[in-house]
């Protein structure tokens, strides 16, 4: 089964994840996933491996061969191949010479297809890094086992559904996503795009149906989006769990970890405004969002450091370009997209 969910211009630089599985029931399957530079899913496919009994390495090479063929047909020029199987990685990297004829033929086929790319590299990774391709291969074997081997296979007409967003009325029922609480249904691609947009907006992850307040969970949507988007989703959940007025971000460059000011002991004034970042360990002032300044008030510290850092200067330049304004109370940047010029800070509502 092939699927190009993005249906867009393919990136020249992609990552190929593949998996070939051999089961105890003599049923073998493979899974292939091609991801772009930003971990977006470009192509996926899975299917059974027909033929006599094969080894794990043979199944792996068959999966890789299928993945490379599809990538080359998509017009991809540069590809990085990820494998979690040591013998397979050694075979395709030239460190191991195949002894059996069938293995040698498969390796030759793989190397011949790799010549169609401008560049191709091999990387050995852990099983967790290729779990998506592993799931595709496992899914094939499970579906094969569910069909009795002594019963002739009859193709059943797939049930069709209509997506409420794109209005495509020719979507297979198994390609539809159902929201648990409200039972609204949408095609996988529309749900994926909905999640991406909501994450970029920083909005609550609700059902795509207009005015529906049912919530989506990242555990239910894990197979639709990339691991990178799942991490962003988890971060948004953490942010939404903390009241806006209690959120504080570490001012240390390359950190910006979120913390909660109410967790600070209220013993004295210094302890209230002084905070140690849980991620980088640096101390900072929660009042002026600057590195901690012993025996100095916030105003005195700013007078002693009148020149902003490089990152602060870039932020101010961008704010001037975008015509952002800074709240005098909470110091957050504010952007007026539409409506009247009256802006009420959420920190002091």
UniProtKB/TrEMBL annotation:
InterPro entries: E3_UB_ligase_RBR, IBR_dom, RNaseH-like_sf, RNaseH_domain, RNaseH_sf, TRIAD_supradom, Znf_C3HC4_RING-type, Znf_RING
PROSITE patterns: TRIAD, ZF_RING_1, ZF_RING_2
SUPFAM superfamilies: Ribonuclease H-like, RING/U-box
Pathway this chain belongs to: Protein modification; protein ubiquitination
Pfam families for this protein: IBR (PF01485), RVT_3 (PF13456), zf-C3HC4 (PF00097)
Catalytic activity: [E2 ubiquitin-conjugating enzyme]-S-ubiquitinyl-L-cysteine + [acceptor protein]-L-lysine = [E2 ubiquitin-conjugating enzyme]-L-cysteine + [acceptor protein]-N(6)-ubiquitinyl-L-lysine
Enzyme Commission number: 2.3.2.31
Cofactor(s) the protein needs: Zn(2+)
Homology family: Belongs to the RBR family. Ariadne subfamily.
Protein name, entry field: RBR-type E3 ubiquitin transferase
């Amino acid at each position: 089964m092939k699927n190009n969910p993005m249906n867009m211009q393919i990136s020249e630089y992609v990552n190929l994840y593949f998996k070939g599985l051999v089961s105890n029931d003599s049923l073998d399957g493979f899974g292939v996933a091609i991801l772009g530079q930003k971990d977006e899913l470009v192509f996926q496919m899975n299917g059974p491996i027909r033929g006599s009994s094969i080894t794990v390495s043979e199944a792996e090479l068959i999966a890789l061969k299928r993945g490379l063929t599809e990538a080359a047909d998509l017009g991809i020029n540069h590809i990085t191949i990820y494998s979690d199987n040591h013998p397979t990685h050694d075979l395709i990297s030239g460190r191991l010479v195949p002894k059996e004829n069938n293995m040698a033929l498969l390796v030759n086929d793989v190397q011949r297809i790799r010549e169609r790319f401008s560049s191709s590299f091999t990387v050995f990774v852990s099983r967790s890094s290729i779990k998506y391709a592993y799931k595709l291969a496992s899914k094939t074997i499970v579906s094969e086992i569910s069909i009795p081997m002594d019963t002739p296979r009859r193709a059943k007409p797939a049930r069709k559904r209509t997506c409420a967003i794109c209005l495509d009325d020719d979507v297979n029922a198994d390609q539809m996503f159902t929201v648990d609480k409200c039972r609204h249904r949408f095609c996988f691609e529309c749900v994926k795009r909905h999640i991406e947009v909501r994450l970029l907006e920083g909005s609550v992850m609700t059902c795509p149906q207009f005015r529906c307040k049912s919530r989506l969970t990242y555990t239910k949507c894990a197979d639709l989006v990339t691991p990178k988007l799942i991490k962003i989703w988890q971060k948004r959940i953490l942010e939404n769990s903390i009241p806006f007025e209690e959120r504080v971000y570490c001012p240390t460059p390359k950190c910006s970890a979120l913390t909660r000011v109410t967790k600070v002991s209220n013993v004295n004034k210094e302890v209230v405004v002084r905070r140690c970042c849980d991620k980088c360990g640096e101390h900072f002032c929660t009042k002026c969002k600057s590195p901690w300044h012993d025996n100095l008030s916030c105003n005195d510290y700013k007078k002693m450091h009148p020149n902003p850092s490089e990152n602060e200067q870039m932020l101010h330049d961008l704010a001037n370009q975008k015509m952002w304004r800074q709240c005098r109370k909470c110091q957050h940047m504010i952007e007026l997209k539409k409506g009247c010029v009256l802006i009420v800070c959420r920190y002091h509502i």
